[in-house]
Design goal:
The complex is a heterodimer of chains A (509) and B (379). Chain A is α/β, with parallel strands linked by helices and 509 residues long. Chain A has two domains: 4-238, P-loop containing nucleotide triphosphate hydrolases (Rossmann fold); 256-350 and 411-500, Rossmann fold (3-Layer(aba) Sandwich), CATH 3.40.50.300. Chain A is built from 17 helices and 22 strands. Chain A has a six-stranded mixed beta sheet with strand order 6-7-8-3-9-10, with helices on both faces. In chain A, strands 16-19-20-13-21-22 form a six-stranded mixed beta sheet, with helices on both faces. The model of chain A is unreliable at 505-509 (pLDDT under 50). Chain B has a domain at 61-324: ABC transporter involved in vitamin B12 uptake, BtuC (Orthogonal Bundle). Chain B has 16 helices and two strands. In chain B, helix 4 (88-106) crosses helix 11 and helix 4 packs across helix 13 (288-298). Chain B is globular and about 65 Å long. The chains are: A alpha/beta (509), B mainly alpha (379). At the A-B interface, helix 10, helix 11, strand 18 and helix 14 of A face helix 9, helix 10 and strand 2 of B. The complex binds adenosine-5'-triphosphate and magnesium ion. Residues 44-45, 407 of chain A line the site of magnesium ion (MG).
Chain lengths: 509, 379
């Protein structure tokens, strides 16, 4: 093996009672792409945060390029040539690309000279790594994929030799993800070292040289990617065999629960996002909506769940119309048995600053079970939250913990537990498993299928084709605000991919 | 997400940091005192003794604190709902009108214990209504509440000036104020409580509104953390999108929170008007609304913190007055500077020393320090 770029030796880190990292040993070879996988809460982000100086390890040693390093702050990490791209970008939205890149690394008292210098340096980086972005574009006007590129440029501009990416593809469209991988390969060819955290095992197989698996704070295995399989990795992560595709029987579709007719929705800028869409969902079936992000799926979900006003059309729930013009009250729809797991759990589905138990009643806080007159029935709320924690194996199992302290997958379980346990007749779910590990995906899929088998109507919107294909009884493909095709679950990926790209294929169907 | 702040142990977060901030404020203030040629240590002694040394001082300190508890609570209730109510000043001022109407009508017929509840209701209602208009404009028209509440401070001031030099002024009087109330609108003093502890009191304005303020502090705690309404307010305050998702009406929650905030601001007027001056005079609020912002920030928007911060500011007011009297080189303006420094360090620069304290804690025991900001990402 080539010389190690980074060695982590005996790293330990606890948060109160939670041992996020235990005795971690890891060696990452220079000039390779190294993947890290593991369940939600396994301690991946914590480990990388220690390497980047956000956290301090309780004990253990870090060596960079063979020399022991003391990394107390991100500045120390940057000085050692370590750069990090966070899942949530740390860019100033109304600054230009160039301004963001030099921010904090201004080389001269006069901004003008710094900028001129940065511009030529940036041009060199862009040429070298194929990272084209317009240096004068304003960040908020760029799509996420390009914003991420700016984050990478920022790290390279600061002289990063080692680049850490924490779940970089969660927010990207498949095309953007492909482009990112080309960039990472380019970086590798230039001798840089890349550490990639992801939940998508396919990405690991496609791009990494070696892969390490974490489980409950420990490093359980490191493999050469060529010599392992998706199944083996999944099993190592969870500690048991995982069904990558949950078994399900035939759907027994009953009466129409939710009927959407000629629905048209505009976004806040007045652009038509949902264009004259009609479809039904019946009791006892899962309907999946496939499509590349940004083709109107979000607006469709918001309109049906009463969060966004529709321009025209109608939606009926159990045969009775939903008021779409006055923007129906989501609370009233909940009372009528429509539950909604929103795509954006951080800002919509949860209040991160709340305790877990407070989030487990969000939207159902009117329910007399949780109230005593105008007061919250705190005891009832907490015992109810405890039940859900147990049933959904939410970790750590403390209903008084601040929601922000739960890992992504566990946050998703909090939302799902809340919505499913209300026993709704219709469940609409946006991106059910975004940022969720394979074990939890299996669990969530099983739950959704159990809902279906109890005769509920389930609508799933996801950008993950695998997920759509393994869950849905019927698949609708959305493109540019319209439904461009309907297929059965046996549809091939290629077929759906073409539809998602807007290529008409009626003849082939 | 900016610099991630360490999660410090609670005692450091709520005790040590405010203490350090305060100390720095006083050290800087000490230099200012030195600059005008006085001895800062003697000044400090006079300030603290003036506020807490004698019974009369304590009573004055608590009298001022009463005012600041109301305005601090008012700011905090709005802030929990994500609203910055800068209109506390005007809401308190205009509430004087409600109190004036009740007191002038009933002070010769009813005893104080009947006038008082009526006046509480009048003050709360008028304050709430004055907050209603900016709230409505924010909820329905999107006019920013910071701007509208500031404008409403000016409107309130103009209306009160007009009324106090016109309709509300007794015909023969030269002063821009109502006639003095009769005994039926004078609130009993609480000085006897302090006298219980053996202190002597000459005359001080501490009155039953102090108890009302403490009751309100408890009710605000109950409201924010134990009622459905408070839950909805906090949800909206943290994330308007989550509130929309949860079926919480934006219009209703903004208006409700602002009216409660306005009602608390309005009740502040009871303290000087019925407890001390026994009339409604021009400019009787004199900046207490703005002090309320500092008190709420310093008290971390929690009623217990607000009561403590209000007492601190009461001390600065009372001890400061004493200081200006004892040290001629220190004028009233100097006292304002000291108060300003406290607001600066304890409010605006709250986080200035935090990273250093975090680093200190981290080097002693890395275990104790977790991080606030990064984990929110669920990454
Ligand atoms: N600041 C914190 N305070 C308390 N607990 C924390 C904190 N940060 C992380 N944890 C806990 O430490 C454990 C590891 O978290 P970490 O974020 O590293 O997991 P992860 O492997 O990145 O998970 P995911 O795949 O969901 O992103 C979890 O149990 C989490 O709840
Ligand atoms: Mg993570």
């Amino acid at each position: 093996m080539a010389q190690a770029a980074i060695e982590l030796i005996g790293i330990n880190k606890s948060f109160g009672a939670v041992r996020a990292n235990r005795d971690i040993n890891l060696e990452i070879a220079r000039g390779t792409i190294h993947g890290i996988v593991g369940e939600n809460g396994a301690g991946k982000s914590t480990l990388m945060s220690i390497l980047y100086g956000f956290y301090q390890a309780d004990s253990g040693e870090i060596r960079v390029g063979g020399k022991p390093a003391s990394i107390k702050t991100p500045n120390d990490a940057i000085a050692l040539g370590i750069g990090m791209v966070h899942q949530h970008f740390m860019l100033v939205d109304n600054f230009s690309v160039l301004e963001n890149i030099i921010l904090g690394a201004e080389s001269d008292a006069l901004l003008k000279r710094s900028i001129a210098k940065a511009r030529s340096e940036l041009e060199r980086l862009e040429r070298e790594y194929g990272l084209e972005v317009d240096p004068d574009a304003i960040i908020e006007e760029l799509p996420v994929g390009l914003q991420q590129r700016v984050e990478i440029l920022k790290a390279l501009y600061r002289g990063a030799e080692i680049l850490i990416l924490d779940e970089p593809t969660g927010v990207l469209t498949p095309a953007e993800a492909d482009h990112l991988f080309r960039i990472l390969k380019q970086l590798k060819e230039q001798g840089k070292t890349v550490v990639l955290i992801t939940h998508k095992l396919r990405e690991i197989m496609a791009i990494t040289d070696t892969v390490s698996v974490m489980r409950q704070g420990t490093m359980v295995a490191t493999r050469e990617t060529k010599k392992t399989t998706v199944e083996e990795l999944a099993e190592l992560m969870v500690g048991r065999r995982v069904l990558l595709r949950v078994e399900k029987g035939e759907a027994e579709a009953g009466a129409v629960k939710l009927a959407v007719k000629n629905l048209t929705v505009k976004d806040s800028r007045g652009v038509t996002m949902v264009d004259d869409i009609s479809f039904d969902i019946r009791a006892g079936e899962i309907v999946g909506i496939a499509g590349v992000a940004g083709n109107g799926q979000s607006e469709l979900l918001e309109a049906i769940s009463g969060i966004r006003r529709a321009v025209s059309g109608s939606v009926t729930l159990d045969g009775k119309p939903i008021d779409l013009t006055g923007a129906a009250d989501p609370g009233e729809l909940r009372d009528r048995g429509l539950a909604h797991v929103p795509e954006d759990r951080h800002h919509v589905g949860l209040v991160l600053a709340f305790e877990e138990n407070e989030n487990s009643i969000l939207g159902y806080h009117d329910d007399p079970r949780y109230l005593k007159g105008p007061f919250l029935n705190v005891d009832a709320i907490i015992s109810d939250a405890k039940d859900k924690i147990e049933k959904y194996d939410i970790r750590p199992g403390n209903p008084r913990l601040k929601t922000a302290n739960f890992s992504g997958g566990n946050q998703q379980k909090i939302v799902l537990a809340r919505e499913i346990e209300q026993d709704p007749g219709v469940l609409i779910v946006g991106q059910p498993t975004r940022g969720v590990d394979v074990g939890a995906i299996e669990f969530i899929h099983k739950r959704l299928i159990a809902m279906r088998d109890q005769g509920k109507a389930v609508l799933v919107v996801s950008v993950e084709l695998d997920e759509i294909r393994s869950l849905s009884d019927r698949i609708l493909v959305m493109f540019a605000g319209r439904i461009v095709g309907e297929r059965g679950p046996e549809a091939t990926e290629g077929e759906l991919g073409l539809l998602m790209a807007g290529v008409e294929q009626e003849a082939a169907a | 997400m900016s610099t991630p702040y360490a999660k410090l142990p609670a005692w450091a977060d709520y005790g040590l940091i405010p203490l350090i901030n305060l100390s720095v404020a006083f050290i800087v203030a000490g230099f200012v005192v030195l600059l005008v040629g006085e001895n800062p240590f003697r000044a400090a002694v006079i300030l603290v003794e003036g506020a807490f040394g004698k019974g009369t001082g304590i009573a004055f300190t608590l009298f001022y604190a009463t005012t600041f508890i109301f305005t601090g609570l008012s700011v905090a209730v709005a802030a929990h709902c994500g609203l910055f109510n800068i209109g506390t000043e005007g809401q308190a001022y205009i509430a004087g009108l409600g109190i004036a109407i009740v007191c002038l009508s009933f002070d010769s017929v009813l005893p104080w214990w009947l006038t008082f509840p009526l006046a509480i209701v009048a003050a709360a209602v008028v304050g709430a209504l004055w907050a209603l208009i900016p709230a409505y404009l924010q909820a329905r028209r999107g006019s920013h509440i910071v701007i509208t509440t500031i404008m409403f401070n000016f409107i309130a001031a103009s209306i009160m000036v007009y009324l106090l030099v016109g309709p509300l002024k007794p015909a023969a009087s030269q002063a821009p104020q109502t006639r003095n109330f009769f005994a039926g609108a004078e609130l009993p003093k609480l000085n006897w409580i302090i006298e219980l502890f053996g202190a002597k009191i000459r005359s001080a304005p501490l009155n039953v509104t102090f108890l009302l303020a403490l009751v309100m502090a408890f009710l605000v705690w109950l409201l924010i953390w134990r009622t459905k309404l408070g839950y909805e307010m906090r949800t909206y305050g943290h994330s308007p999108k989550a509130a929309r998702y949860a079926g919480i009406s934006e219009t209703r929650i903004i208006i409700t929170a602002m009216m409660i905030s306005g009602a608390l601001a309005g009740m502040m007027a009871l303290n000087p008007v019925m407890g001390d001056q026994h009339n409604v005079a021009i400019d009787f609020v004199s900046g207490a609304g703005f002090v309320g912002i500092a008190v709420a920030l310093m008290g971390r928007l929690h009623p217990v913190g607000i009561v403590l911060a209000a007492i601190l500011f009461g001390m600065l007011y009372q001890g400061g007055a004493e200081l200006a009297f004892e040290m001629p080189a220190i004028s009233r303006d100097m006292i304002v500077i000291i108060q300003g420094l406290v607001i600066l360090f304890a409010g605006a620069l709250e986080h200035m020393f935090r990273p250093y304290i975090q680093a200190l804690f981290a080097s002693f025991s890395p275990r104790s320090v977790g991080m606030e900001a990064v984990k929110g990402k669920g990454a």
